[in-house]
# Entry
Amino acid sequence: MQHSVWAGFFSHLQRDFRLLARHKLELLNPLVFFVLAVSLIPLGLGPEKKVLAALAPGIVWIMALLASLLSLENLFRSDYEDGSLEQMLISPQPLYFVVLAKLLVHWCATGLPLTLMSPLLGLLMSLPETGYLPLMASLLLGTLSMTLIGGIGAALTLSARRSGLLLSLIVVPLYIPLLIFGASAVQTAIDFSQYQMQLAVLGAMAALGLLAAPFAIMGALKISQE
Amino acid sequence: MSDLLLELDHLACERDDRLLFSQLSARFYAGDLVQILGPNGAGKTSLLRIIAGLTPASAGDIRYKGQSLSSSRWQFAQDSLYLGHLAGIKKSLTPEENLQWFIAQQAVQSDIASALKQVGLRGYEHTPCDQLSAGQFRRVALARLNLSAASIWILDEPFTAIDKSGVAMLEVLLAQHQAKGGMILLTSHQDLALSGIKRINLEDFTSVHETA
# Structure
């Protein structure tokens, strides 16, 4: 049985990566938003380095958050609409791994590129040198939690017809701790060159989310069928 | 020969405070082909979804080989195949890729190429499903029947959108499955000319009175 659980998990990964490869524009959407939104800030505020540097950690983090929010609605939507979700729910595969695979692919498509893109945006925002590594590290862990928390919201709002607003209202309050610790990790790294505590908290949130969020999502997906 | 596969025990279904059917009891044996009848909105799809395990029943119990479904969910999932209104096929993937995914879920190894050939989709293995016609699209979903080792088939309107030869092909498939000791539960608005078909009319289980 062990073998087929992994086979099911990998076939899910494969399928979702394939789907991703055929919908490249969807993949670009949050990234383009992220880059555009951040690059507008220096234009609006003026190129004063001091001002930009002071705002940089917060701005980059907020924009990453909004970009991640943009990508959430489609997480389970297409599976819900074409009946794949029904098949997942009644298949003998453990649903936990199915959900985990979907979340993993979603993170690879949004969180990971956002993280990789962030140094460029740090540059635009004149982020001080000591801030780059903490920015990437905090976003790496933070975006993972965003996907996990956002997945719960996306699953809960599946059966609502216009779910965008509802989704934001559910998910944004849960993102707040991430934003606080994430932005503060970068800020304290710049000010005191210490950010281990914030990173540890972000890591703990991601670990907890990885463990618990799929169960919440499984419950929500089952409700969506009623 | 006729083993008891599935047993419905006083099943009831309520949708939006409307009682669709109640006190529905039935026994299905290996080799049974059962057509669920009833006008639109009678709860045919709801009944199939309840049996497939997608939605809970308002009352009553379903037993699979004598065991309540709540305790044999996994065994039942392995032994059943549900084909709903929605095909569960990804439009941007090819038929072959869709079926590969299906096979990995079911843990049965079968030959996708021959399954597609049997439903008349030979040569379309690598065509993305959104370029197929509605009938061909439906056939991709039907190809699952050739791949699955499940003995309980739950088919919601399997004859929609497919042409005459498709209907004939499906009827042969159903008969073969029956002969192998499988069980089929389906809804259809067509008059089926299959031998040994049993019918359950949901109108017989509609109570005129409101629920207490």
Chain B has one domain: 4-205. The helical segments of chain B are 44-52, 73-79, 95-106, 112-118, 134-147, 164-179.
